[in-house]
Amino acid sequence: MGTKRIRNLSRIAAALVISTAVLATAAPARASTTQESVLQDDPQLLGVRPYQLEQRIFFLKAIGVDRLRVSVFWSNIAPRSRSQSRPHFPSPGPRFPQSYPAGAWGPYDNLAAIAKKYDLKLLFTLTGPVPAWATPGAQRREGLFRPDANDFKNFASAVGLRYSGNFTVRDRATGKVWRLPRVDSWSIWNEPNFPSWLLPIWLPNRPKTARDMVAAAPHHYRKLLDAGWAGLRNSGHGRDLILIGETAPRGAKKPSQLGNSMAPAEFARELYCVKANFRPYTEDEARERNCPVTPSARRAFRRSHPGLFNATGYAHHAYSLDRRAWRTPPWRHPIKDNVPIGNLGRLTRTLDRAGFTWGSQRRMSIWITEYGYQTTPPDPVAGVPPERQGPLTAWGEYMAYTNPRVASIAQFLFVDDKPILQYAEDDPKRWMTWQSGLFTQDARPKPFLRDYLVPLHVTQEGLTVRVFGAYRPGKPGTPVSARIEYSRGGGQWFVLRGMQVTNLRGYLNTTVTVPGAGLVRILWTDPTRGIPVPTNPARVG
C-alpha cells in the first residue's frame, strides 16, 4: 500500500468511527479465556514505513484483532544469505543479535515497539527461507533443503535475545538509547509439510507403492523444533507461549509425486515417530526416520524432544480448500489425514494418541493461525463471491468457537496480495498469490469488513434458529447489549430477544424461535457511544 492508499484507509477508518462507532474502543473484544482473533499480513506490516505501520496497527487494534502473527524470515536477517560460504560472525558470535546486520532488524523493531504502544500482542514465527550457507545441495533447493539445525538454534537465540525485553538499541537519528519490548509468543517454522517451505518432503527411495514411501520432512522438522526450542529457552523464553506445527491443511501420498505436500495428520504422526496404528517405529523403519531404535532411546524420547511434549499448542492452517476450489467449513477432505476446519478432530485425536504412546496425557490446544476465503474478483481462478466471504468465514469461526480444543481463529490477510504481473492475464499462475483480505489492493473495503467486525452465523431446525455472532471491537470485560431481530423482508424489524453479552470476548451463541421464513440479524449497541451496529442479515426458512 502506498501513501495515497494509506490516506484512503485512514478515511475509511474515520467513516467507520462516525457511522458505527466500531473504532471508538481502544481494545478488542474477548470471547473466552482461550480463543483469540489472530491476523497475519507480512507485506502490510514488514514492508512499510513506521508511520504507515502505526496507522495499520491502530486500525487492526480498533477492529478487534488480538494478536498479529508475523514471519521472522531467517534469510532476511542473516548476513550474506545468498552465499554458499558460511560468513564470519563478529564477536560475540551467531547466537547474539549484534552479530547480524543492524538494518535487517528494523521492520521487527518497529513492529515490536508500535504493537506495544497499542497493546497488541505478537506471535513471531521463526521460519525460512534459509540462508544459502545453512543448506546443503543444489542452488535450486537453497533456502528449503534440510536447514542446518545448529545454525537455526543460533538464529533463534539471537532473535530471542533481541526481543527479550533487555536488549537496547541506539536511534541513529537522535542518538537516544531505548529498550526493545519483549516478545513472548512464538511458533517454529511455517508449513513444514509443504514443499515451498521445507525439503525434501519424502525420501527419494523410488517407491513403487504408497506403503514404500518414507517421510522426510517431519523428521527434519523435529530437529529444527529441538533447535528452535533450545534457542528460545537459552535466550530467556522458556516459559513463553510456544507453538509447534504451523501445518498446511492438505497433502497427498503418491509414489510418482514425491514433491507433493504431506497430509497434516500423517505429518503429526511421523513427527512423533509413530505409525498409523500409533505404535512406535522400530528397527530399520525407525533408523531411516531418525526415530529411537533401542529401548533406552525410546524411554528417553520425551526428554530428548521437549518441544513435542511441552509446547503451548499446535498451530494449524485450517483452510477449506481443495485443488483451488473453496468448500464450506463443514466439508471434509476425501483423504482422511487432511485437516480443513471441518476435520479438526482428526488432528486432535492424532496428537492425543501420539502423545499417549510416549506416556503423555496432555491434550494440546489447537491454534488456528491462518484461515480465510479468497474472493472472485479479483482472483478469477479460485475464489468465492465477495458477498459470501463474510458468511463463510463466520461459519468457520462458529465451528472454532464451539470446539473446546481451539485457542484461536485467524484472518489471513488484511489486504489482498498483488497478482504476479509477469504472467499473462489468462494464466492461472498470475493468481498464485492470496486474495482473502478485508481490503482490495486499491484500499477499497470488501463487504467482508463489516462481517469481520460483527460476524453472524445462523443454523435452523424447524422454527428454532441458533444465532452465533460477536462484537469484535468491544472493550474487554465490558458487557455489550444485543438484540436478535427478525424481518419478513419488508424492512421492518421485530425484536425476538434482547440480552446483555458478558462473555469476555463479546461472543453471542443462543437460540430464538422465528415466526417463519425471513431475515435474522443482531443489532449490537456500542458500549462506548451507544450507537446501534447491525450485522448483515442472514436468511432463515
Secondary-structure topology with pairs:
Blueprint: H1 3-20, E1 36-40, H2 42-46, H3 50-62, E2 67-73, H4 74-77, H5 106-117, E3 121-127, H6 149-162, E4 168-170, E5 177-179, E6 185-188, H7 217-234, E7 241-247, H8 264-271, H9 283-287, H10 295-299, H11 301-304, H12 306-310, E8 313-317, E9 321-322, E10 325-326, H13 344-357, E11 365-370, H14 386-401, E12 406-412, H15 448-453, E13 456-461, E14 464-470, E15 480-487, E16 494-501, E17 507-513, E18 518-525, E19 532-534, E20 538-540
Parallel strand pairs: 1-2, 1-12, 2-3, 3-6, 6-7, 7-8, 8-11, 11-12
Antiparallel strand pairs: 4-5, 9-10, 13-14, 14-17, 15-16, 15-18, 18-19, 18-20
Question: What do these coordinates show?
Answer:
With 541 residues, this protein is α/β, with parallel strands linked by helices. The chain has a single domain, classed as Glycosidases (TIM Barrel, Alpha-Beta Barrel), CATH 3.20.20. It is 27% helix and 20% strand. The chain has helices at 3-20, 42-46, 50-62, 74-77, 106-117, 149-162, 217-234, 264-271, 283-287, 295-299, 301-304, 306-310, 344-357, 386-401, 448-453, and strands at residues 36-40, 67-73, 121-127, 168-170, 177-179, 185-188, 241-247, 313-317, 321-322, 325-326, 365-370, 406-412, 456-461, 464-470, 480-487, 494-501, 507-513, 518-525, 532-534, 538-540. The chain has an eight-stranded parallel barrel, surrounded by four helices. Strands 15, 16, 18, 19 and 20 form a five-stranded antiparallel sheet that branches. It has a three-stranded antiparallel sheet with strand order 13-14-17. A hairpin with a 6-residue loop joins β15 (480-487) and β16. The longest helix has 18 residues, at 3-20. The model is unreliable at 1-33 (pLDDT under 50).
